[in-house]
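Postdoc handover notes: sequence design on the structure in folder B. Input tokens:
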């Protein structure tokens, strides 16, 4: 018998979470807003979602942007027990029906505490928090998966039987979930290991020490093979850590501190082209027979398609995360007619004060071309709406990263009050006095790692290779499978050898707890990858362009493909400055050019950080969730130094400055900068 659920208290009438009732189909394909919200009733979850209907459906009319108010998730502030010094919290996942837009029927979704996004968890630095992530899910899997051969089809709702294929395996998926607190310094046992998902009725216990600087974290599902699908069902929420440095700034708070979880979604339609509300994960299967990531036609903020927000003419703080599966957002402020707001006004009104893992040293203006957020990236933004008093402006997506904006690029509208408001806040000249800029030259002794991201044009789908340095290039055949040579500026030719590529290959990266490492991530010319390392925060220390056309498919005379490697070295073509908000503390970094670039345009990004705050097994991966599920995720371990010294593969020495590594001098990844 399916579970009966209670409807959560709505935050806004036009976009309230509805109960589990099957919507009656609209009378026609024309989309109209309801005259008034209908009182919900509790009802059972259906046993299965319907298979997409045939024949091919007509074009669905666009939804009216800015019709519904922004939904604000509730805030959970667990208090520490005075005897134990530890706070405790239970968060339960539940199936609910959520109306993403007034012109759409409600959608069956999975939600933390019945909210999409989940409640914002707020803690003070040093407050140890034990969370019971309870799986209270039941009923069918709340989305359908479709692959299409027609590129234009991914930008429209519905199922085209002439070009689309319905994946029936998804209907058999159980509610199997595991929570990862993205950006947390925590032990491996609490990190949300991808295989350690729990079924309904069971609970994942995680304890977070929260011993890190004020930052904007977020929690989301991380189950092996199905992260992209589980997150799309609604399983994401924010988690804020506060400290004394942040408190001293007197930043806007309460109703003027607003979480913004951005994503994109798609829904199915019935045979007349009327949206059913059923979530649809529709992706393109390309000419190489490789499925592309998900890009939906609807921009969603806090579980509402293209909402609006009424604001006073005063300061606000927006804590933002791109929770999309794959879409990059570049947010540019526009007037109601779609023309960009004067850059001088934008520069006066909007200021970025934080990134993924902490506050910036000082406020940074938003880039004139717009604020870009890749999946997994966060931004902490202050807005002075007194500069825009009486105006209606909105963020529109102007991303140039393929496939570009959706068919309706509007994201979020601000309706600024006419009246002036008394606001004592002033923008501080210095945000984080504790910020220290890292550099390779001044960093403590540290290990080096090399990761290569392969272009799908060569390897069929993007792959993530762990590499080791080859000290004597004459010891390997060139070209040969898994060998990549890199010509860096002013340095000897670097030869790298692949040591792992699949998740279950041998773990080759073993980091010393408390040790520093520089990871060099080389994209050989494929799509931009948001590269995320669990446990640590880091700073970007270097970004360089490379010509990656020397990396090719290796084919014998009889046409047999014998692997992939460089036939000529990947060659340096120029430095890119690291400036502005890119100087901030991060845990997710974009590797590649977000602008259209010629084939073979590679990029090297180096990040430097300390592996402290926990030990155990962790993961790093591309945060395009379909890439993560398919192959672009690898494990690493962190061990106390004395424990690592007992490892059979350790023979002393190693690393840049003698910090040690796995597998002798330099370890896997070597000690080459």
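Designed sequence:
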């Amino acid at each position: 018998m399916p579970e009966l659920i209670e409807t959560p208290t709505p935050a806004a009438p036009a976009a309230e979470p509805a109960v589990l009732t099957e919507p009656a189909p609209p009378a026609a394909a024309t989309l109209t807003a309801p005259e008034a919200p209908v009182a919900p009733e509790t009802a059972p979850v259906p046993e299965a979602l319907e298979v997409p209907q045939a024949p091919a459906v007509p074009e669905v009319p666009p939804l009216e942007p800015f019709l519904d108010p922004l939904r604000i998730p509730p805030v959970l502030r667990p208090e520490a027990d005075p005897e134990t010094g530890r706070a405790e919290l239970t968060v339960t996942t539940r199936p609910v029906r959520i109306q993403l837009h007034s012109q759409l029927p409600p959608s069956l979704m999975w939600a933390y505490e019945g909210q999409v996004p989940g409640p914002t968890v707020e803690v003070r630095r040093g407050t140890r928090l034990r969370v019971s992530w309870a799986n209270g899910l039941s009923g069918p899997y709340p989305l359908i998966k479709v692959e299409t051969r027609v590129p234009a089809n991914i930008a429209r709702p519905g199922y085209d039987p002439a070009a689309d294929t319905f994946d029936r395996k998804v209907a058999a998926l159980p509610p199997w979930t595991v929570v990862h607190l993205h950006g947390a310094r925590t032990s491996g046992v609490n990190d949300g290991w991808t295989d350690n998902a729990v079924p309904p009725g069971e609970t994942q216990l995680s304890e977070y020490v929260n011993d890190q600087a004020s930052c904007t974290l977020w929690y989301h599902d991380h189950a092996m093979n199905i992260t992209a699908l589980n997150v799309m069902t609604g399983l994401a929420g924010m988690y804020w850590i506060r400290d004394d440095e942040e408190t001293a700034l007197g930043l806007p708070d309460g109703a003027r501190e607003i979480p913004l979880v951005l994503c994109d979604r798609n829904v199915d339609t019935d045979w007349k082209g009327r949206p059913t509300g059923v979530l649809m994960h529709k992706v393109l299967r390309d000419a190489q027979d490789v499925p592309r990531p998900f890009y939906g036609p609807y921009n969603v903020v806090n579980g509402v398609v293209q909402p609006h927000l009424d604001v006073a003419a005063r300061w606000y703080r927006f804590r933002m995360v791109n929770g999309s599966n794959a879409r990059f957002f570049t947010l540019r402020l526009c007037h109601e007619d779609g023309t960009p707001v004067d850059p001088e006004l934008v520069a006066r009104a909007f200021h970025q004060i934080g990134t993924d893992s902490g506050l910036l040293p000082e406020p940074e203006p938003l880039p004139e071309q717009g604020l870009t957020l890749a999946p997994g990236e966060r931004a902490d933004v202050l807005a002075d709406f007194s500069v825009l008093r009486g105006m209606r402006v909105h963020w529109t997506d102007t991303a140039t990263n393929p496939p570009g904006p959706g068919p309706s690029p509007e994201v979020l509208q601000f309706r600024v009050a006419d009246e002036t408001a008394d606001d004592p806040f002033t923008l501080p000249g210095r945000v984080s006095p504790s910020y220290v800029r890292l550099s390779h030259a001044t960093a403590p002794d540290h290990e080096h790692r090399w990761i290569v991201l392969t272009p799908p044009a060569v390897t069929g789908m993007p792959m993530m290779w762990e590499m080791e340095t080859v000290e004597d290039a004459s010891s390997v055949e060139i070209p040969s499978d898994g060998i990549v040579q890199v010509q860096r500026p002013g340095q000897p030719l670097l030869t790298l050898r692949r040591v792992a590529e699949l998740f279950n290959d041998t773990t080759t990266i073993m980091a010393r707890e408390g040790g520093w490492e520089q990871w060099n991530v080389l994209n050989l010319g494929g799509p931009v990858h948001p590269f995320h390392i669990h446990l640590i925060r880091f700073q970007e220390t270097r970004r360089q362009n490379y010509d990656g056309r020397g990396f090719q498919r290796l084919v014998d005379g009889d046409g047999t493909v014998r692997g992939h490697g460089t036939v000529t070295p990947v060659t340096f073509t120029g430095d890119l400055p690291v400036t502005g908000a890119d100087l901030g503390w991060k845990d997710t970094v974009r590797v590649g050019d977000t602008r259209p670039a010629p084939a073979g345009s590679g990029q090297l990004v180096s990040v430097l950080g300390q592996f402290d705050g926990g030990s155990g097994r962790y993961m790093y991966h591309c945060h395009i969730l379909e890439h993560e599920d398919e192959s672009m995720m690898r494990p690493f371990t962190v061990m106390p130094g004395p424990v690592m010294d007992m490892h059979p593969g350790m023979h002393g020495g190693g690393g840049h400055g003698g910090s040690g590594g796995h597998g002798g001098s330099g370890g896997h990844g070597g000690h080459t900068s």
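Context for whoever picks this up: DSSP finds six helices and 41 strands in the chain. Don't rerun without checking with the PI first.
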